[in-house]
Amino acid sequence: MKKYRRAYIIVLDSYGIGQAPDAAEFGDGECHTLQTIVRSTQYNTPNMKRLGLFNIEGVECGEKELAPIGAYGRLQERSRGKDTTIGHWEIAGIVSETPLPTYPEGFPADVIARLEKALGRKIICNKPYSGTKVIEDYGQEHERTGALIVYTSADSVLQIAAHENIVPPEKLYEYCRIARSVMTGQHSVGRIIARPFEGKYPDYERTPRRHDFSMQPPAETMLDALQGKDFATIGIGKISDIFAARGIGRHIGINGNTDGMDKAIATLDDDFCGLCFVNLVDFDMKYGHRRDIDGYAHAATLFDRQLAVFMDKMHDDDVLMITADHGCDPGAPGTDHTREYVPFLAYGRGIRAGVNLGTRSSFADIAATVTDMFGVELATKGKSFRKDIEK
Q1: Alpha carbon 294 to chain centroid distance?
Q2: Nearest to 357 by CA among 34, 52, 2, 44
Q3: Residue pLDDT, tens place only, 75-99
Q4: How far apart, in whole angstroms, are the C-alpha atoms of residue 344 and residue 10?
């Protein structure tokens, strides 16, 4: 078996490549994140094109590469969800048959009552809301009364927003930990998110001190399996948050996509053997949900420039995998994620160029492949394609 020293998985958060067959079951009509952003004058990704992005089955936009230098394919999500937590868990090997709870009408009155009692503060809002709009609409009341702004989205999340002058970030994190202990059983949301903000009305701004408090993954992941065999496990960006820090040997925080890639590139100079798992959230948070087509396209262009630097610095025994966790088509109605196929691109000196993996039936195929590469056992419904892409 080919021996790999380091594997990198870079998740382009929400970079979908076309409507999944079951999209209607998740409230989605036509959606295709990639097709939408390719139409923008701000889009230019020659390095992903070289890897085979536009050669992927079902991708009918962009210009195909005559001789792709990577292996390529698309993955269909098997889990019942289209959110960050479920998507990343599946990439790491867990197929979630039961969807996490969502609250399109807000949280039930009895849940709010339990939260208020546990937190010792009143709660305002309690609706699905845009994160920037909610502080605009409720920020003044929060400052006047000290009540916490609690809101949700189409995802399985409970978010608590508070002005840093009213609730310092560490206190807000404490409130989130308490809320995490309240939201159990049928109300076990995927994430409790601290959303601190600052400034004066009407110019409130969210600060970079957001923090996610995720529920524990319900089964072993590739991170657990690798760490259990003494391989390094590095999480860059919100990976540690998504997995409740489980299986993460080293966490590297970031401030946006560009900083995230800079830090991923820097780890290529480090001496480790194992997995580096990267999430680039700006695609989703800054551009997908806000339906900013040009912003999303420009972010893709900037990533692609850094991708060239990353690829040039890779060692002979490194492998790079690029994928996504769901879609968030900035051209689709509303502000929600979209149920889409996601891309898979692989590159490295030990990876065969031009391998077309077609359509894979689960994101978990990535976990199965990575653990297979390192000779580690993992119980997963994913199927390894190591032998298909290996030289």
Answers
A1: 20
A2: 52
A3: 999 999 999 999 999 999 999 998 8
A4: 10
Q: What global pTM score does this model have?
A: 0.92
| Cβ–Cβ under 8 Å, residues 337 and 11 | no
Which amino acid belongs to residue 185? G
Strand partners, 131: none
- Domains (range + CATH), the chain: 6-96+218-389 (3.40.720.10), 109-214 (3.30.70.1250)
- Per-residue pLDDT of 282-301, as tens digits, reads 999 999 999 999 999 999 99
For residue 111, the one-letter residue type is V
The rounded distance, in Å, linking the Cα atoms of 230 and 32 is 40
State the amino acid at position 344 in one-letter form: F
d(CA 243, CA 251): 11
C-alpha distances (whole Å) from 30 to each of 251, 277, 290, 338 are 37, 30, 18, 9
Q: Are strands 148-152 and 232-236 parallel, antiparallel or unpaired?
A: unpaired
Per-residue pLDDT tens for 11-43? 999 999 999 999 999 999 999 999 999 999 999
Q: How many CB atoms lie within 10 A of CB 138?
A: 21
